[in-house]
Design a protein that fits this description.
By secondary structure, the protein is mainly β. It has 1 helix and 12 strands. Strand 8 and strand 9 form a beta hairpin. Keywords: Hydrolase, Protease.
Length: about 140
């Protein structure tokens, strides 16, 4: 099993995100990605979600992506507030491993990390050492497709 720190760099290459700072949170069941804006559309008869985000500093640029909608569920945040969120499946690259994970899209504008990596993404592959951080460095600037 690979040990992660409480914060790590990861990549979501299918969404065009080469480097994203994430808080690794084994107390959160699901993973969440900050989006500035999202919209729904239909592609070949199936529901999709398009979204726009600024993954790092404002000068780093805006990323626009789209993915099929996996599900829509109620999520309770750490403050006890309920909201209905869109979920999608995407490829995670972290610590030299790749795996498919579910993430939900939400507004994390007031948070320090644009991504929260929850325990369902860690399952059977990663352990967390809360005393350490950024154990695996930054992913390469250009993830492979």
């Amino acid at each position: 099993m690979i040990v992660l720190g409480w914060r790590e760099w990861l990549a979501l290459p299918d969404l065009g995100l080469a480097r994203v700072r994430a808080k690794v949170d084994s107390g959160a069941r699901t993973s969440a990605l900050h989006v500035d804006e999202q919209w729904r559309f239909v592609e070949r008869g199936a529901p999709w979600v398009g979204f726009r985000l600024t993954p790092g500093r404002a000068h780093a640029g805006v990323v626009e992506a789209a993915a099929p909608v996996l599900d829509e569920r109620e999520v309770v945040d750490s403050g006890g507030r309920r909201s209905r969120r869109v979920f999608l499946r995407t490829r995670l690259c972290l610590a030299g491993r790749e795996r498919e994970i579910e993430i939900n899209l939400t507004d994390r504008r007031g948070m320090l990390f644009p991504m929260l990596l929850g325990r369902s993404a860690l399952d059977s592959a990663f352990m967390v050492d809360p005393a350490r951080s950024f154990l695996h460095g930054r992913p390469p600037a250009n993830p492979r497709p």
